[in-house]
Amino acid sequence: MQLRVLGCSGGIGGVARTTSFLLGDRVLVDAGTGVGDLPLDALCGIDHVFLTHAHFDHIACLPMLLDTVIGARRQPVTVHALPETIATLQVHVFNWQLWPDFSVIPDADNGVLRWAPIAVGESCDLDGLRMTALPAQHTVPALGYLFETADGAMAFSGDSADCPAFWGALGRVERLRALIIETAFSNREAGLARVSQHYAPETLLPALARIDPSVDVWLTHLKPLDASCIVAEARNGVHRIAALNGGQTLDF
Ligand SMILES: [Zn+2]
Ligand SMILES: [Zn+2]
């Protein structure tokens, strides 16, 4: 299975795109601005979207994705998320004011959007890919995800401050090859990281000590102005640690 990074930045500008990963051809994880770079046939082939949380940088392209593919879809696009995330998007986005309610378009029995609530610890099996919701700690209800195939596993933190339950869950994963972990802020902005519930290197490094040195660590959601500083501060001399890049592919 291949993960393609459509977006992994904590902001916009130039080539920066916000969080979205494509797993194989059919599964999207988050729907940030990177989705807009996909060609039309790839957009029409997306069957499942797994959301980490409702923040705008992770859902910005979901409304326009549904609007774009509606004429080409025989089956709905299933959007998996926490019930609280679904409720937020129903009330604040798909409310006929900010955007139409695509769960009842083209008609009430046949919407192009199908909501699928998921809870921490629950898994969803899709043609050889198992998606499991992992705990996260953020300013709104949020998830990480574990992606597993017969060959190996990869974990993604979503947006999170330090979350002991996330690291505990990783400790039970066999064949974990890589971890995509958000590190939005540098240490000089650790106060901002604290109030917005993100990692900075000073909170990430003690947590990383809990995972095996063989696991590759990819940093994501870096604030564009501080990206190189964050990467330098996050090196621990134990793990292979590098910044994730837009357009990059990872196999697992
Ligand atoms: Zn967030
Ligand atoms: Zn975010």
Automatic annotation (TrEMBL):
InterPro entries, sorted: Metallo-B-lactamas, Pdiesterase2, RibonucZ/Hydroxyglut_hydro
Record CDD domains: class_II_PDE_MBL-fold
SUPFAM superfamilies: Metallo-hydrolase/oxidoreductase
Pfam families: Lactamase_B_2 (PF12706)
Domain Metallo-beta-lactamase, chain residue ranges per copy: 17-208
SMART domains according to UniProt: Lactamase_B
Annotated coiled-coil segments of the chain: none
PANTHER family per the UniProt record, alphabetical: HYDROLASE C777.06C-RELATED, HYDROLASE C777.06C-RELATED-RELATED
Name by which UniProt lists this protein: 3',5'-cyclic-nucleotide phosphodiesterase
Species annotation: Jeongeupia naejangsanensis
